[in-house]
Amino acid sequence: MKVISTNIGKPTKVLWNGETIETGIYKYPVNEPIFLQKEDVAKDAVIDRKHHGGTYKACYLFSADNYDFWKKKYPNLDWDWGMFGENLTVTGLDESKIRIGDIYKIGTALVQVTQPRQPCFKLGIRFKDQNILKQFIHHEKPGTYVKVLEEGTVTNDDDLNLVEQSVNALTVKQFYQLLYMRKKDSALVDLAINNIALPPHKRENLKRYT
């Protein structure tokens, strides 16, 4: 896996259901390294701190390999890296192989995979179509958030080097599928509850299915 674009967003005001709201979904490539901090990415806009940023969502990674699929669905958009609100656009990112809890070295930063991205209406705003939400869920390639274990700088062409694979076999894709299952898979529930890399509230919410 390799970083091909570092992306930063500025606070952007948009009209939503008759009200003006602010969002950081509009991220664009920057020709400079970005600095991964414990709670977010330096100089990046994080507006809704309840749902974005924080320890378990400090930085969002999305696969460049998915872009062609979405460009065919939305050919009239002004396409650039960062369209999905990701800070790092990465080649070779495969959610079916990456485990929740895997630790990677990216540039001078050390990060741990924590959870997939669950889309909200702001992705629909960026794509000018709220149908993107269901499509995004069904595509099952959501990218991943990471926790920043060691703050550091990331730049284009930096490799993602696996430092430590999680002993818990739960992959990003499996957990993403679990989140949207009507009837929860008991084996996946058990893996998730016992995966300490997941946010505590996610693990706690799943205990009702045991």
Features:
alpha+beta; 210 residues; globular; 6 helices
What do you see in this structure?
With 210 residues, the protein is an alpha+beta fold. Helix content is 22%, strand content 29%. The strands form three sheets. Strands 4-1-7-6-10-9-8-12 form an eight-stranded mixed sheet. A two-stranded antiparallel ribbon has the order 2-3. Strands 5-11 form a two-stranded antiparallel sheet. The longest helix has 9 residues. The chain is globular.
Estimate percent helicity.
Answer: 10-25%
Uncertain regions spanning at least 5 consecutive residues:
none
Count of DSSP strands: 12
The order of strands across the largest sheet is 4-1-7-6-10-9-8-12
- Percent of sequence in beta strands: 25-35%
The value of Rg in angstroms is 16 Å
Q: What is the global morphology? A: globular
Tally of alpha and pi helices: 6
Put the structure in a nutshell.
This protein has 210 residues and is an alpha+beta fold. It contains six helices and twelve strands. It is globular and about 45 Å long.
Topology:
Elements: E1 2-9, E2 12-16, E3 19-23, E4 27-29, E5 34-36, E6 59-63, H1 67-73, E7 88-91, E8 103-106, E9 109-116, H2 121-127, H3 132-139, E10 144-150, E11 152-154, E12 160-164, H4 172-180, H5 186-193, H6 200-206
Parallel strand pairs: 6-7
Antiparallel strand pairs: 1-4, 1-7, 2-3, 5-11, 6-10, 8-9, 8-12, 9-10
